[in-house]
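Subgroup meeting minutes
Present: P.N., E.W., G.H.
Scribe: E.W.

1. P.N. recapped why we're keeping a running log of single-chain structure predictions: easier to compare across weeks, and new members can see raw inputs and outputs side by side.
2. G.H. added today's entry (243 aa).
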Amino acid sequence: MRIYDYDHPVIKELQDIWEPRKEYIDKDLWIIRNFLSQEEIDWIMSEARKPEEWYITMRSIYLNVGNKYLEIYPEYDENGILVSQFNPDTPRKTIPYFKDTYGIENRLMAVVPKYFLGTTTLQSFFAVREDNEEMKARSISAEQEDFSFPWHYEEDAKHPETGAKMTAAFSLYLNDDFEGGELKFLNKPDIVIKPEPGLLVNVPTSKEFTHKVSFVKGGDRHTIYGNCWDDISLYPMSSQEDC
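Output recorded in log:
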């Protein structure tokens, strides 16, 4: 049962369990280790390793950032290309682990900033494919400058249609069988977060915490990604143009 009430006894219980496990690194930059069970990681990674249903996002620097919506049946355009699928009328799959009473989404709701309405989105940084010439050509400068995603911060992020403002962004790491992919901070060079399976990291949205993902090679870096917004009634849906 997915719960949307912050005062619900289950959410309070989960807060009591997980809040003490937060390791604060700098202000609201914190991590929780082993936030996922090995069983949960194994199932999600089995989905991540399937080549079907990935959606290459508009934010890809070199065709390297992919989303897969675990809960949503894939939709394709007339050319057979997978399209963004956050249409509220899109049929949903029943998937394990996320919406159980003590499942992943309720655990996340208990610890991340308000307001979180859920995520079942895989967001991955792909290593360069040797058989993809366009990807190889685009990746040259990114590798030289050591980023899979460049310096950025989310404080000024507003949805263009609703005006909703992002209040938090987090990643839940699923694997570490790759090189690179660390989370680095422009203004805090001594802080480097290395991915490890089951690690949850909450990144403050302010300019102070401008960050990047270092260049990924030797494997694909898989995460569950989510964010929070200041107004539930204006919570945005992603589209082909903004995802």
